[in-house]
Every structure is written in structure tokens, then in C-alpha cells.
Design brief:
By secondary structure, the chain is of the alpha+beta class. Helices cover 31% and strands 26% of the residues.
């Protein structure tokens, strides 16, 4: 197949890597891979095209020119901007939801309304349009406080803190930054106790959910739901979950500590009812529904929905997939998921450790040389995915906060952790930092459901 992957990060590199690997291993005929705009790490596996990933008309025009069989839209911003819609209108199969369906990620308030209609178990929440409403909601729930920016925030729009002043400050900043482009749908209005006025700035205050968090990606074609394997990511910047939230500092799979019926429960009680509700509303969801979960003392609860693969979890999940990814994505894009065979998975464990630049997440430094990637990939079971890199004057340099994902495979978590961290040690990036405890508690058997 000719496949165009849209995006620049490690998530998109993981998709390109998986598509290239299935051809190399003979699991599928050789693909012709393209990326727009891609990153330096993808250049050895895909042709790169300097197209704005958020420009639907430009992406659709490129897809037509290349004559691709499938477009895969990776990041959330292009999805919310309607890039998948533009490609569909051009008559090209595309993996990724419409802009309307992507509101499951683009608006926390909208997602809460869908969950309420579908009877999906989730945290209680107040949707607030003023700082005063936020203060009342914080007092109603008590500490720890959970405050979420309603819109896209690159995985960093959530504050979980026991400091009431810090929670209020985050809400004040989010309300001030939203401008006049806030949600204005009847669904959001109904959550505001009858406030039906025009576009408003919105934040969501939720009750705190105890228990470990889990990410589960569900492939959807508007009707059928096919789950992948669960993973766990690490959102805080420092070891032992210290410091501010980030886009994610690492992930691992499998989760041997999770209930054996977790995936079936999530499909039956969460993913399928959500997909059915979206279809009932006339906005069918096709693509991947990222279900962020908390396994609490009161049962499984949804923390959030996203409309794309999670980064850094998908880097670990795809490393275990044995079913050719290309066929699965095409089936989702063309409404044929009900006809595919059950997904096949390796029994190996996979650990992904993110190497971040100095100053991340507050003020990441850019332009530092990167070396050692070839040495890392020479290690057994290790591959490296680019997240924030660029080539300047012929040299590979950092170009973002999260710079690389170092993915290690092994027979168990101990071996996978050893492989990943051995790869990290081969990489040189001045001032970089990474967590040293990715999957450590799971390796030690210290993760438990309340």
C-alpha cells in the first residue's frame, strides 16, 4: 500500500516504524511510506513532505498527488482542525475521526456530556466558566484538586494538586487563555445549569480518582470496536511522580497486575457505548478512541478520552503488535473492522523511556547536538523513535521538549527495562533528563488495584 502518515512526533514515528517493520518481516507486502511533514528519524523509512499537518486542504492535495491508499492522521490538533474531513471529502480512506467526533478530545465538557448520555462511569465534574465557580467546585470536591483546561493543551492542561491556590491559578490561566473560541454547543450549555449564552471560556473541575491509571486504545470504524492491549504511562516529570505534568515521560506494557477482564469491561461499559452514542448523534467516531482509566476503589472510571494514539504509550504497544498494522488501520478507515481476525500480540514486555531536553516541561532548550542513536539501536531489542529533533547544518539536534523515545523489548519487564535504559545510556544530549523508574514498581510487583 501507499500510506501517508501525518504528524511530526514519536507517535507518528512509531506508526511509520511499525508499518516499515511489517514489510521487512514479510508480514505484509512492501509499503510505500510517506510522512507529512515527518521528522529526521522517519527519513530512512518514509519520504518526507514539507506540508503543514494542520492544513487539511494541503494534506488532501498531497494525498491525491501521491495516489495514496490510506492517510493516517496522528496528532490531535490536525484532527480537531478537520484534516481527516478534508481527506475524506477527497475520496481517500483516512484513519482518524472527523472534527466533530474529535471533540471527544477537543472539549472535556463535551466528552463529559457524551459519557453521561452513554452511562459511562467517570469522575463527577463541574463545568465552570468563572473563577468563582471553580472555587466553589474545588470546595465541593476537596483535595486533591483536579482542574482541566477544556481545550487541547498537548497533554499538559491538567493540574492535580493539594494546593488550592495552585488549582485556582491554573483555572484562572486556562480561562484567560481560552479567548472567545470556547465551546458553544447545547451539550456544554446543559452542563452549566441552564446557561445557554454564546461561546464561553470553560474549565472542568473533577473529583480526584484514586488507584493506578491505565491507557487502552480502541480502534473504531463508527460501529465496531477492536481493543488493543493496555499500557501505563508516567505523566509527571520526575521519579516517584514528582514535579509538574508533562506529555508523558515513559510507558510500558503488559500490565500483569491489571484485572484479567479489564479490556472486556472497558469495551462493554465504556468504548462501545461511547461509539454507539456518537453514532446516535450523527457524528460517528472512526479512528482510535484513547480511553484513559483509573482503576479506583469504587471500580473502573474514565479519566479522559483522546481521539488519537497516546504518546508515549503507543510506542510500547505497537512494539508488541504482530497483526500487520496496515490492514487494521485500513479496515477502521473503510468500515470493515467487523471482518478482521483478532489482533495478535507478542508475549514480550516493552518499556519506553522518554529522553527530554533541559528545561522541559517549563522552558525546553533547543538546538543541542544529539549523538549515540546508532549505538543504542545496535543493542538487542532496542529501537529509538524521534519526537523533537531537527537537522541543522547536517547535524541532528534537539527541537522540542520530549526529544527521543527509547524502546526496549525483553522476555519480561526486568529485561525490557534493562534494554531501554541501556539504550538511554548510549545517547548523548547535553542537559537532557529522563525518569529512572519507568515500570519499576510493576517490575517489583508493587502496583495494585484498590
Amino acid at each position: 500500500m501507499k500510506i501517508l502518515v501525518v504528524g511530526t512526533g514519536a507517535r507518528e514515528h512509531a506508526i511509520v516504524h511499525a508499518l516499515a517493520a511489517e514489510s521487512a518481516e514479510g508480514a505484509a507486502p512492501a509499503h510505500e511510506l510517506h510522512a507529512a511533514p515527518g521528522n529526521p528519524g522517519m527519513a530512512s523509512q518514509a519520504a518526507l513532505h514539507p506540508v503543514d499537518a494542520n492544513d487539511g486542504r494541503a494534506v488532501a492535495a498531497l494525498a491525491r498527488t501521491l495516489g495514496v491508499d490510506l492517510v493516517v492522521v496522528g496528532p490531535e490538533a490536525p484532527l480537531v482542525a478537520g484534516v481527516a474531513d478534508a481527506v475524506r471529502e477527497a475520496g481517500i480512506p483516512v484513519f482518524g475521526p472527523s472534527a466533530e467526533a474529535a471533540r471527544l478530545e477537543g472539549s472535556k465538557a463535551f466528552a463529559k456530556d457524551v459519557m453521561a448520555a452513554a452511562a459511562v462511569p467517570t469522575a463527577m465534574a463541574h463545568v465552570c466558566t468563572t473563577v468563582e465557580q471553580v472555587a466553589d467546585a474545588l470546595d465541593a470536591f476537596g483535595a486533591p484538586y483536579v482542574v482541566k483546561d477544556d481545550g487541547l493543551a498537548a497533554g499538559k492542561g491538567v493540574v492535580v494538586t493539594s494546593d488550592r491556590d495552585a488549582a485556582l491559578a491554573h483555572a484562572r490561566e486556562a480561562l484567560g487563555a481560552r479567548g472567545d473560541d470556547g465551546p458553544s454547543t447545547p451539550e456544554v450549555s446543559s452542563l452549566r445549569s441552564g446557561d445557554s449564552r454564546g461561546p464561553r471560556k470553560v474549565v472542568v473541575v473533577e473529583e480526584y480518582l484514586d488507584g493506578p491509571e491505565v491507557s487502552l486504545f480502541c480502534l473504531c470504524d463508527g460501529a465496531t470496536v477492536v481493543p488493543m492491549v493496555p499500557a501505563q504511562d508516567f505523566k509527571r516529570v520526575g521519579d516517584d511522580d514528582a514535579g509538574p505534568n508533562t506529555g508523558g515521560m515513559g510507558a510500558y506494557t503488559p500490565l500483569d497486575w491489571a484485572p484479567t477482564d479489564l479490556v472486556a469491561e472497558v469495551v462493554d461499559r465504556i468504548a462501545q457505548p461511547t461509539v454507539d452514542e456518537m453514532a446516535r448523534r450523527g457524528t460517528p467516531f472512526s479512528g482510535v478512541l484513547y480511553v484513559g482509566l483509573a482503576l479506583t476503589s469504587r471500580g473502573t472510571r474514565v479519566v479522559e478520552f483522546n481521539a488519537r494514539f497516546g504518546d508515549p504509550e503507543i510506542q510500547a504497544v505497537l512494539a508488541r503488535l504482530r497483526t500487520p498494522l496496515s490492514g487494521v488501520l485500513l479496515a477502521a478507515a473503510t468500515g470493515r473492522l467487523d471482518g478482521i481476525e483478532p489482533l495478535r500480540w507478542s508475549d514480550d514486555a516493552v518499556v519506553n523511556v522518554v529522553v527530554a531536553s533541559e528545561g522541559y516541561p517549563e522552558s525546553p532548550r533547543k538546538g543541542d547536538p544529539i549523538t549515540g542513536i546508532d549505538d543504542a539501536e545496535a543493542l538487542d531489542g532496542v529501537h529509538v523513535l524521534h519526537a523533537g529533533t531537527a537537522v541543522v547544518d547536517g547535524a541532528l539536534v534537539s527541537a522540542g521538549g520530549r526529544v527521543l523515545s527509547v524502546v526496549g523489548r525483553g522476555a519480561d519487564l526486568t529485561a525490557a527495562r534493562a534494554a531501554s535504559y541501556a539504550g538511554v545510556e548510549k545517547i548523548a544530549l547535553d542537559g537532557s533528563h529522563h525518569r529512572s523508574d519507568i515500570a519499576l514498581k510493576a517490575e517489583r510487583g508493587e502496583v495494585a488495584v484498590p
